[in-house]
Amino acid sequence: MNSRYGAGIVTSNEEGKLIFAWAEENLDSKDSLSIEAELIRKAMVKARVNNWKAIHIQSANKLLIEKINNGSIEDVRIVTLLDDILHLKECFDWCSFSFGNSNNMSLATKLARFGRNLTAFVEWKDNFPLWLSEHSQSYV
């Protein structure tokens, strides 16, 4: 039996202004560590495609962030994903990862909940739905 997961990624500039966001529905039975690692890899690929030079990624999965920051790829569940993330990291002038608590991750969490109900991938760049723009302003 598959579970429904929503994924939400939010990007902002140094001033906290929302610049890119996406949400998607994920039908998968993988564990949360694998799902989060896949999302981080997707975010890094999108940043690379958009020619971003510096990125900072926050995740609510503290164990995953520790594995990435320690360069620890021994976890067989996510060895390929971790290897990809560590190689993608080298594509940026500056790339860092940190654990984000629920307070500063609430916009991504809201997008993830939205993503659970989607049947297709949705992304926004420059023009955002009102509910997303209003929610992001409370964190600037």
TrEMBL record:
<dbReference type="InterPro" id="IPR002156">
    <property type="entry name" value="RNaseH_domain"/>
</dbReference>
<feature type="domain" description="RNase H type-1">
    <location>
        <begin position="6"/>
        <end position="114"/>
    </location>
</feature>
<protein>
    <recommendedName>
        <fullName>RNase H type-1 domain-containing protein</fullName>
    </recommendedName>
</protein>
<dbReference type="InterPro" id="IPR053151">
    <property type="entry name" value="RNase_H-like"/>
</dbReference>
<dbReference type="Pfam" id="PF13456">
    <property type="entry name" value="RVT_3"/>
</dbReference>
<dbReference type="InterPro" id="IPR036397">
    <property type="entry name" value="RNaseH_sf"/>
</dbReference>
